[in-house]
Amino acid sequence: MQNISNRLSLIDLLRLSLRVFRTKPLRTFLTIFGMSFGIGTVLVLVSLGYGLQYILIGKLVATEDSLITLEVLYPSESELNITYDDLKNISAMPQVAEVSPIAEFTGEISNDKITGLVIIRIIKPNYFRLAGQLPDVGSPILELEPSTVISNAALRLTGLYQSTSTPINNALGENFSFKIFYQREGSIEVEETKTKSNLALRGIMADELQPFALLPYEFVEKEPPFYKKILVKAKDINNVESLRDELIEKGFLISARIDLVNQATKVMRIITGVLGVFGVTALIVAAVGMFNTMIVSFLERIFEIGIIKSLGATDADVRNLLLMESWMMGLLGGIGGVILGMGVGGIANFGLSTLAIRLGGKPFDLFITPSWFIVLIITSSSLIGLFAGLWPARKATYLSPKEAFLRK
User: Fold this and answer.
1) Long-range contacts, 1-9 (Cβ 8 Å, 24+)
2) How far apart are the C-alpha atoms of 260 and 271, rounded to whole Å?
3) By CB atoms within 10 Å of each CB, which of 215, 327, 342, 347 scores lowest?
4) What pLDDT, in 10s, does the model give residues 284-301?
5) What is the helix, strand, coil percentage profile of the chain, to 5?
6) How far apart are CA 37 and CA 334, in angstroms?
7) Rounded to an integer, what distance in angstroms lies between the CA atom of residue 203 and that of residue 168?
8) Sign of the four-CA dihedral 396, 401, 403, 408
9) CA distance 298 to 393
10) Cα–Cα distance measured from residue 148 to residue 119, given in angstroms and rounded to the nearest whole number
11) What pLDDT is stored for residue 361 in this prediction?
12) Cβ neighbours of residue 176 under 8 Å, at least 6 residues apart?
């Protein structure tokens, strides 16, 4: 080794620090792998928390209008239904921007193969926008279009989707006819009506266990005698509270999607935090292992440090050399952890999406990793590596060549 009269440059430090990968390859690899495993665990758990939050909030908020929309209905114990007068009075309220009534009756769905009993929901085209509920397969009903959206449970009744190996979207475009059985309020008499024409299947709710069909209001021969509930959109978010209070005073039961979103967000933040704590615990264990490795490495290289100092290396050079080694192992551990964590998440997402498709659902990502978190975790692993090397570097700084040779 050449005499070092000046402080080592960054390139010199990097070259010398790489020697540990040649002299102690197994120990270095195991140290980096332990760090990668801890960081990968953090990444997987936090990604799971974010994925659950995204799926839940995404289910609750499919459209912007649904956040300021209230679901209005009478309590079940009252045995009351929403009448046309109720609909008119609610629509006239100053805080209301628009309404979407929903009638619900039993009925039949028929095609060329079979007839099945389903729940019929008669809706208007703005239902999907205000409800924040969109078909998992296909698209919503368009205005003045003879089409329908049904659940996958209803689709199974028609015989068009029986095998999980058959893509569910193959049924889109099929024509169905419907019968609706109106039961008059306060009466046991049933009035039968039907759709004006066959309705083409436009969308499928893939994750629903209940067999139901959504029918456009304008394609039902007779108007429903009453409604089950109404979706009421406020003019803006500032009117939501006052509108809800006024509707409650009128005896209605109110469900606000924005409340569900807020509650879900709080719950998911707690879950993500708990998962993060478990992940950080694994990371601390990996950091302790790395600290132990750096101490052992220092004790084994005391004679080498003495030689370097006797050749003219300064205390700062020795300190920086050990810090460079620990920093590099921390950095490589972080990169390896990101690769490991994202690899596990990617494989899990692929497997779950494939299973969901085979079961008639739609693909989804359960593990979602924000890009900022990747940057944060690589930076954190580099700092952990740096801190793990502080104590050995400090001991090496105060070690004289004479003391190093005597220890040897």
Assistant:
1) 1/307, 1/308, 1/311, 3/311, 3/312, 4/308, 4/311, 4/312, 4/313, 4/317, 5/312, 7/314, 7/316, 7/317, 8/313, 8/317, 8/320, 8/321
2) 16
3) 347
4) 777 777 777 777 776 666
5) 55, 20, 25
6) 9
7) 10
8) positive
9) 8
10) 13
11) 61
12) 109, 110, 111, 148, 150, 158, 198, 199, 200, 201, 213
Q: How many residues does the chain have?
A: 408
- Residues 293 and 28: their CA atoms lie apart, in Å, by 8
Share of the chain above pLDDT 70, in %: 79
Q: What pLDDT does 4 receive?
A: 41
Tokens of 116: 């099945």
| Amino acid in the structure at residue 47 | S
How far is the C-alpha of 205 from the C-alpha of 137, rounded, in Å?
7
pLDDT of residue 343: 92
Q: What is the pLDDT of residue 325?
A: 81
Do 188 and 110 meet the contact criterion of CB atoms below 8 Å apart?
A: no
Phi, psi of 255 (to 5 degrees): -125, 120
At 212-236, the pLDDT tens digits run: 999 999 999 999 999 999 999 888 8
Say what the pTM is. Answer: 0.57
H or E segment at 384?
helix 371-388
